[in-house]
Design goal:
It is elongated, with a radius of gyration of 34 Å. It is α/β, with parallel strands linked by helices. The protein has two domains: about 300 residues, 7-stranded beta/alpha barrel; about 60 residues. Helix 1 packs parallel to helix 9 and helix 2 crosses helix 3.
């Protein structure tokens, strides 16, 4: 029997408040509590709680036949515990059914896999512990931020002990191959890869309520019909979508919850597909081949690359400055520093700085608190400047050498400036001396004498003329 892997992502960042230049060094609290609480409360009511209720009903009806998987970032879990604890309780009830698998990811929903393996490993381990604490599961499958993957990232994930990983079934990677098989990592074939079927996933998450779409309206029967038409040899269809699709991106009035409710029954009746978790698929299927991904891919926009987060100079500058603090931060045990370090790494901060136009960016823009990417960059860098001051103050061992190096550079710059000004001063003094020398020359004196004598001659002539 062929399988469907239904996976949902949940993430909300701690959005930053308006942080001005004059706040630097004076205000060490960076977050817009009102905005964060209002967004989380709204999404919890419209989406998470409603969708969880539907999932529980489906599990109650079909039992262990129906399986789903979730990846919830550590930052989202923190916010749910703060602002909507009833959502945590709802997920705990789902965990107790035995039909739900929770995956691991970076605690901060960060881009750290691109920068530092040690910090990457630390964040994943912290997230693992959070999932175990809240839901009693030890994650065996990994899902990186925004499905970002490369051969090296996959090898790093395998080193952490994971058996499988989720990523995007990008066309430029697969070529003629189908995403509807199990693959494995090119560097470490022990890591199995589940590839997202982006067409069928996006049909639900982006096109469901689009009245201009040729397939509108999308029904459970139509979706099951598409599954039935797939090549019989294709073993698994991986539907990976944001959980906010249900009730937030696609409103309740669109019929999205009715679609979710009806889908399992229609699939069971009309196809030979069953629902399995990622770890079950990885355990039961054999990879058909490796896939080679030398450069990182993601599930964002048409390019399926990193340009949504690191596509312009603003984003790269902020990204590099943030991670230049890694060594110092890791010497600090201060709870507030550690918390801010986690929250400032969220990929959303860099996404808000993007100057691209996205074909599928509407859902992300919906939660963007900034009017322009430049405003997002300035605000973030102001916060990062204050955070850097605090880190330097609490990491004197490392900061001292950095400070000395910085002061040495400043002194060198000052010396160069002084030399420049001294040369300019010498030039000006030399010019002044020449001017004074010229003003005191005999030629000048004679000229003055002639100018003084001239009126007298004119007066004499005038007198003589009068006498005549």
């Amino acid at each position: 029997m062929r399988t469907i892997c239904l996976y949902f992502q949940i993430h909300q960042p701690f959005r930053l408040k308006r942080y001005r230049f004059f706040n630097i060094g004076n205000d060490h609290y960076y977050y817009d509590d009102f905005l964060n609480e209002s967004i989380v409360a709204r999404v919890a009511e419209r989406s998470y709680l409603q969708a969880n209720k539907v999932i529980r009903q489906i599990i109650k009806e079909y039992g262990s036949q129906f399986k789903v998987a979730f990846s919830i970032s550590g930052i989202a879990l923190d916010q749910l515990q703060l602002y909507a604890p009833e959502v945590i309780e709802s997920f705990q009830k789902l965990a107790n059914t035995g039909s739900v698998e929770f995956l691991a990811e970076t605690y901060s929903h960060s881009l750290v896999a691109l920068k530092c393996k040690e910090e990457f490993t630390r964040q994943v381990e912290e997230h693992r512990q959070k999932i175990k604490e809240l839901f009693g599961q030890e994650p065996r499958v990994f899902r990186n931020t925004e499905l970002i993957y490369s051969d090296q990232i996959g090898a790093d994930v395998a080193d952490m002990g994971f058996t499988a990983m989720l990523t995007e079934g990008a066309r430029h990677v697969l070529g003629w191959k189908s995403p509807n098989y199990l693959y494995c990592n090119a560097k470490n074939p022990r890591l199995k890869l589940l590839l997202r079927n982006f067409r069928m996933s996006d049909d639900i998450s982006f096109r469901f309520s689009n009245k201009g779409w040729s397939e509108f309206p999308l029904t459970a029967e139509k979706f099951a019909g598409w599954l039935k038409k797939l090549d019989k040899k294709e073993e698994t269809v991986n539907i990976f979508i944001d959980y906010e699709t249900f009730g937030e991106h696609q409103w309740m009035e669109s019929g999205i919850f009715e679609f979710l409710t009806a889908l399992p029954g229609v699939i069971y009746r009309n196809t030979n597909f069953s629902f399995k978790t990622p770890s079950e698929i990885a355990a039961n299927l054999l990879p058909i081949s490796t896939i080679n991904v030398p450069y990182p891919i993601s599930w964002a926009d048409e390019e399926r690359d990193l340009t949504a987060w690191l596509g312009n100079e603003l984003q790269v500058d902020a990204f590099n400055k943030l991670y230049s603090l890694t060594d110092m931060v890791n010497t600090i045990s201060d709870e507030k520093i550690r918390k801010d370090w986690k929250y400032l790494q969220a990929s959303d901060h860099f996404y808000f700085m993007s100057t691209k136009f996205f074909s599928d960016g509407a859902s992300q823009a919906y939660f963007n608190p900034y009017e322009t990417p430049y405003e997002a960059y300035i605000n973030y860098m102001n916060v990062l400047s204050d955070f850097s001051i605090r880190v330097n103050a609490l990491a004197p061992g490392i900061a001292a050498s950095d400070e000395i190096a910085g002061l040495t550079q400043v002194i060198a710059e000052k010396d160069a400036l002084i030399s420049k000004y001294e040369s300019e001063l010498k030039r000006m003094r030399s010019t002044k001396t020449k001017i004074e020398s010229v003003s005191k020359s005999p030629a000048k004196v004679s000229a003055k004498s002639r100018k003084t004598a001239s009126p007298k001659k004119e007066k004499t002539k005038s007198t003589k003329a009068g006498k005549k």
